[in-house]
Q: What sequence folds into this?
């Protein structure tokens, strides 16, 4: 094995293997793949597996001598060890089945993982793609984060006064909607462009006019946690992917070894992102 995906274990001669799905590159595992990982954990590890925040699975306590046979097993089932060290970490995305997806991000994560999984970078780099403002995959504390947005409009279709868009549990979480006898009013200053209201408005009084993507940079967790900064908003997923590629290239050419995107912003400002 290349070393990508192997983490030093607690016991001598043993390692932890970080496993991802690569056919296709995705943040999901099939039931069959989970079975293979369970077998590896039983046969070669401690019998346990650990699910990581980056949507990979770690199998601890693997004997170093067993790695070649495990590598063949993984490859035969669309799996691979990876996502450690200075390699780009697994690009995490929301579940495509989530009710609230403004724009499902699974396909974008797949594309980025396929293109960039073997890319080495100056420092640890996480990319997280959220389908709505809830940001379940922590886009605001990732080196690069994307949050999909929906621009909503009031249409000509009459409001039925059902109040679903203002009442708990499905009503606007940002208190941006008020309902009067005359109809619904949306406060644009409060609206966070989550798009929920359009999903629950059955008559179509509120609808999505366009989708867009906020790009955040420089966030991270760890011992020096940082909230990412909003860099820009782009109108399409393709634009978001192209921009992420450019940010990574520029980061690679400017950062010192070990420096994360947030460190580079702290040292050099945001100017290097602007071209
Ligand atoms: S961020 Fe939004 S779309 Fe993604 S999983 Fe959370 S609630 Fe669902
Ligand atoms: S899109 Fe705006 S108005 Fe609609 S639920 Fe989200 S925050 Fe509220
Ligand atoms: S805008 Fe739609 S969801 Fe809101 S009260 Fe009117 S019909 Fe119901």
A:
């Amino acid at each position: 094995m290349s070393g990508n995906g192997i983490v030093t274990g607690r016991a001598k001669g043993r390692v932890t293997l970080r496993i991802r799905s690569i056919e296709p590159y995705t943040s999901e595992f099939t039931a069959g793949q989970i079975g293979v990982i369970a077998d590896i954990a039983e046969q070669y590890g401690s019998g346990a597996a650990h699910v990581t925040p980056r949507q990979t699975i770690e199998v601890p306590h693997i004997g170093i001598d067993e790695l070649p046979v495990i590598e063949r097993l993984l490859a035969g089932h669309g799996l691979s060890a990876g996502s450690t060290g200075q390699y780009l970490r697994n690009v995490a995305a929301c579940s495509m089945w989530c009710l609230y997806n403004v724009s499902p991000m699974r396909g974008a994560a797949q594309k980025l993982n396929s293109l960039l999984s073997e890319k080495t970078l100056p420092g640890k780099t996480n990319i997280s793609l959220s389908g709505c403002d809830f940001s379940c995959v922590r886009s605001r504390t990732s080196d690069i984060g994307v949050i999909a947005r929906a621009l909503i409009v009031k249409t000509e279709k009459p409001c039925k006064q059902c109040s679903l868009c203002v009442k708990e549990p499905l009503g606007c979480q940002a208190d941006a909607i008020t309902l009067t006898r005359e109809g619904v009013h949306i406060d644009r200053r409060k609206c966070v462009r989550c798009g929920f209201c359009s999903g629950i408005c059955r008559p179509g009084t509120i609808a999505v006019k366009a989708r867009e993507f906020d790009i955040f940079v420089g966030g991270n967790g760890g011992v020096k946690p940082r909230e990412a900064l909003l860099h820009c908003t782009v109108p399409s997923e393709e634009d978001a992917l192209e921009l992420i590629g450019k940010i990574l290239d520029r980061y690679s050419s400017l950062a010192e070894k070990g420096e994360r995107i947030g460190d580079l912003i702290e040292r050099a400002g945001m100017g290097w992102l602007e071209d």
Observations:
- The mean pLDDT is 93.
- The pocket of iron/sulfur cluster (ligand 2) is lined by residues 150, 152, 172, 174, 176-177, 186, 191-197 (CB under 6 Å).
- The chain has three domains: 6-81, 92-149+212-273, 151-209.
- The CA atoms of residues 139 and 145 lie 4 Å apart.
